[in-house]
Design a protein that fits this description.
Blueprint (H helix, E strand, L loop, with lengths): L1 E4 H6 L1 H11 L3 E5 L2 E6 L2 H15 L1 H15 L6 H9 L1
Parallel strand pairs: 1-2
Antiparallel strand pairs: 2-3
């Protein structure tokens, strides 16, 4: 993440927006040396919001953690094997 002042960002706003949108860059903007805002693409922002929604739902988080535990314990099945078993 690139850190810069709001004053500096204003001078290069179009370039920063392009960098965020086309290259996935994220910029931390400061005012008087203190973090004030973040500039990122709309897609990245929506993704972060969606992730926060999922992680804030106790049931969804429980499912994610259970799935990770299954993977760590080797309780997995190859997609091809599952499809064959379901069709068989």
């Amino acid at each position: 993440m690139t850190v810069m002042s709001v004053t500096e960002a204003k001078k290069h706003l179009l370039k920063l927006v392009r960098g965020a949108q086309e290259q996935g860059k994220v910029y931390s903007l400061t005012r008087k040396g203190t973090p004030a805002a973040v500039l990122m693409s709309e897609d990245e922002y929506r993704s972060v919001r969606e992730t926060l929604e999922v992680l804030s739902d106790p049931q969804e988080l429980k499912g994610i953690l259970a799935g990770r535990a299954d993977i760590a314990a080797g309780r997995v099945e190859a997609l091809e094997d599952l499809l064959e078993r379901l069709q068989g």
